[in-house]
Amino acid sequence: MFATEPLRIVAVSAGLSTPSSTRLLADRLAAATREQLEAGQDRPVEVRVIELRDLAVDIAGHLVSGFPPAALEDALSAVTGADGLIAVTPVFTASYSGLFKSFFDLVENTALTGKPVLVAATGGTARHSLVLEHAMRPLFAYLRAVTLPTSVYAASEDWGASGDAYADGLPARIRRAGGELAHAVTGGRAVSGATRAPGVDDEVVPFEEQLAALRPA
Asked: What stretches of 82-206 show up as alpha helix (H) in DSSP?
């Protein structure tokens, strides 16, 4: 019997703080994608989150020397070899962060051709949500990736909010985006999470408690 090759989901987080709402969003999107993949098909699923903060010095060195250290080379290989990619950045000066851009500047412009990418961002106010459309989608279009219809922006007030009659809350948007990525990774065989009824995991948790869970022990 041949071993089944796992589906690889890689999330790139460009958050700078510890704990980080950007990392929190990357983790939630990766978990939603894993949930839908495991429910919709039989292959094992591997999820990896890459913290660009830990690679900042290596990224700067590679930009000027052209030679990536081993840790950075491993991260770049993971991104280009993934079946699906989640890219999350904080908003700096109305765009993605310099660290986020510098990392993807190191990716060959054909290496992500046809790869499904879920784009997401965090910021202090909802007024910056268009960064997903005017900055992130064009970046991945240049890299020839396929960005998913649903992108996720999380402002400070979105954490712990349940939405209203006119707009989905953050948990619903995360489920929908994760379902779309799972669907794209499996060629349409995964079930979207857009219509799943809320469960016990969807209870409203204060943002401070969510960040506290990320702090090292």
From this structure: 98-105, 131, 137-142, 170-185
pLDDT of residue 208: 55
| pLDDT tens figures, 157-193 | 888 766 554 557 899 999 999 999 999 999 865 333 3
DSSP 12: E
Percent of the chain with pLDDT over 70: 82
Residues contacting residue 199 through CB under 8 Å, at least 6 positions apart? none
Tokens of 146: 């396929």
Residue from 103, 110, 65, 67 nearest 87 by CA: 103
Q: How many residues does the chain have?
A: 217
Choose among 167, 101, 154, 98: nearest CA to 128: 154
Q: Residue 95: which H helix or E strand, with range?
A: strand 95-96
Distance separating alpha carbons of residues 166 and 205, to the nearest angstrom? 21
Query: For 84-107, what is each residue's pLDDT tens digit?
Result: 999 999 999 889 999 999 999 999
Residue pair 186/138 in contact (Cβ under 8 Å)? The answer is: no
Residues 6+ apart with CB under 8 A from 48: 8, 9, 10, 11, 78
Q: How many CB atoms lie within 10 A of CB 142?
A: 11
Three-state secondary-structure class, residue 122: strand
Return the H-helix or E-strand segment holding 84: strand 84-92
